[in-house]
Specification:
single chain, 504 residues, mainly alpha, two-stranded antiparallel sheet, two-stranded parallel sheet, 4 strands
């Protein structure tokens, strides 16, 4: 039968005036519906390499990709039936509401959920609604490698999956394999910009030019992308011509082509996933550091990668990112000397500069084990104590602090915050959550209905509201985590709220 172009959520954005309807379950705002033909118009026979004139389509039953994961539940520590009776659409909506601003422990817990092999919801179908939402969430956090790994394991047999893999490949500079797939199976994408790009990447310039001409005649390509493709196919014609003004929300493909033409688009105001492209060695040192900072804050790159960039060479100037480079290098030098008189001021300055952009947990991960064994002046010692409470060793290193606040933190790390007077209302709400012995009413209904995973995603949202000042929601979320076996997460996120929030 004659094939018609299939509309699907494509991780692209066309800029002002050209954006298509948004997918309500998309986790990031640059996921949109792909280009589709008007009703009744069949796909144009372009060339044999661009799109086959006839495609036989046979409906087959496919297993749901919702069960696909990178790690078994036994490794992640999650129950295999975490999703229980929840509807895939409800879970997808919950995931779409969680963004990169999560506290570190909630983000770590969320990542465990996203990559786990779990029994799919009862209503899961071959469209993989929950699977796509998991991938979209990873992309929203800038975690392109696990997103690509999930897509490759599930197989990109649908336009929806292929679109996400293609975008992730574009942003990491690994689009050749994805383009090979698209050239073999053009039915996977109804986006003619992608088809022209991939034909050109494969060296078939004539087919690319012909495909562009046909798509232009049929009005299948937006004006800006048409102009960009024209330059991409024949850049010599535009030497000396001012570059095109990019849209405010470029698609990964527009971003990649602009870069190839020597007109890179700055990533600072783009979604996190775009920052991955700045980690390439071809980028300047400053751009690499700034990208790594954004991605380390969201958990998408390890702290050691950021440290490697910070210590790569001497700072080129002062202010902004260079102040952080200088502070980290001075702290490392002070720690190498093991001189408390040098470590104390260097530690305070590094904490101050990293706190300015929310990277205290990264600093703690990198340096807390080294400062823990030093005898420091009281103020530096208190800071070192708090840093250790932000690490995996928070229980073993907890000790009775000198201040009322530190004594409460130590008791909280041991799971007994009620043993010490709460120093402020937030601490009091945390202690209340640890006094409760069962899940709160607002989440217990989901548990009783065998929708534990849905309740867990809801609790993550409550934690964020609690960190912003809704103390009742904070109490309930902590009580839920403890009642359902997430004791360590309850302690760690409570410690984060008190240490990272100035009000704590």
């Amino acid at each position: 039968m004659r094939a018609r172009l299939i509309a699907f959520p494509l991780a692209l954005a066309l800029g002002a005036g050209a954006a298509q309807a948004q997918d309500p379950l998309a986790a990031i705002d640059w996921l949109r519906d792909g280009l589709s033909l008007p009703s009744g118009i069949e796909e144009a026979p372009v060339t044999d390499t661009a799109a086959p004139a006839n495609i036989d389509v046979t409906a087959i039953d496919r297993p749901s990709p919702d069960a696909v994961g990178l790690l078994p539940s036994g490794v992640t520590g999650l129950p295999d039936d975490l999703w229980g009776r929840s509807a895939a659409s409800d879970l997808a909506r919950r995931l779409a509401g969680l963004g990169p601003g999560l506290l570190p422990e909630m983000r770590r817990l969320l990542f465990r959920v996203l990559v786990s092999e779990l029994r799919p919801p009862a209503d899961s179908g071959p469209e993989g609604l929950l699977f796509l939402a998991r991938v979209d969430t990873l992309i929203a956090f800038g975690a392109l490698d696990p997103a690509k790994a999930l897509l490759e394991r599930a197989g990109t047999e649908t336009p929806e999956s292929f679109a996400r893999l293609f975008d992730a490949a574009l942003l990491t500079g690994t689009e050749n394999d994805a383009c090979d797939t698209l050239r073999r199976r053009p039915e996977l994408s109804s986006d003619y910009t992608a088809r022209v790009f991939c034909l050109a990447r494969g060296g078939d310039w004539d087919a690319a030019a012909l495909t562009l001409e046909v798509a232009r005649a049929l009005d299948f390509i937006p004006i800006f992308e048409d102009a960009l493709l024209t330059r991409f196919l024949d850049p010599v014609l535009f030497e000396g011509v001012p570059p095109l003004v990019p849209p405010e929300s470029p698609s990964p493909l527009v971003f990649r082509m602009s870069d190839a033409l020597g007109d890179p688009i700055p990533t600072a105001r783009l979604p996190l996933a775009f920052a991955q492209s700045d980690l390439r060695e071809s980028r300047g040192w400053k751009a690499q550091i700034e990208a790594a900072e954004r991605l380390a804050r969201s958990g998408a790159v390890p702290a050691n990668r950021l440290l490697g960039l910070y210590t790569q060479r001497q700072a080129a100037a002062s202010g902004g990112v260079w102040d952080r480079v200088i502070a980290v290098q001075q702290l490392e030098a002070a720690l190498d000397s093991r001189d408390p008189a040098r470590v104390a001021p260097a530690l305070a300055e590094a904490w101050r500069t990293m706190a300015g952009i929310g990277l205290e947990p990264v600093l703690a991960e990198l340096f807390a084990p080294r400062v823990a064994g030093l005898t420091l002046p009281p103020e530096a010692s208190a800071l070192a104590f708090r840093m250790t409470l932000l690490t995996d060793d928070f229980v073993d290193t907890a000790r009775s602090g000198a201040s009322e606040a530190d004594r409460f933190l130590a008791a909280l790390a041991q799971g007994r915050p009620g043993d010490v007077a709460a120093p402020n209302p937030t601490a009091g709400a945390i202690a209340d959550g640890f006094r409760m012995t069962s899940a709160p009413a607002r989440l217990d209904g989901l548990i009783q209905d065998n929708r534990l995973g849905e309740a867990l995603l809801r609790a993550m949202d409550l934690i964020e509201n609690g960190a912003r000042g809704d103390l009742d929601e904070l109490t309930d979320a902590l009580a839920f985590l403890r009642a359902t076996g997430f004791e360590t997460s309850a302690r760690r996120v409570a410690l984060e709220i008190l240490i990272l929030d100035p009000r704590g």
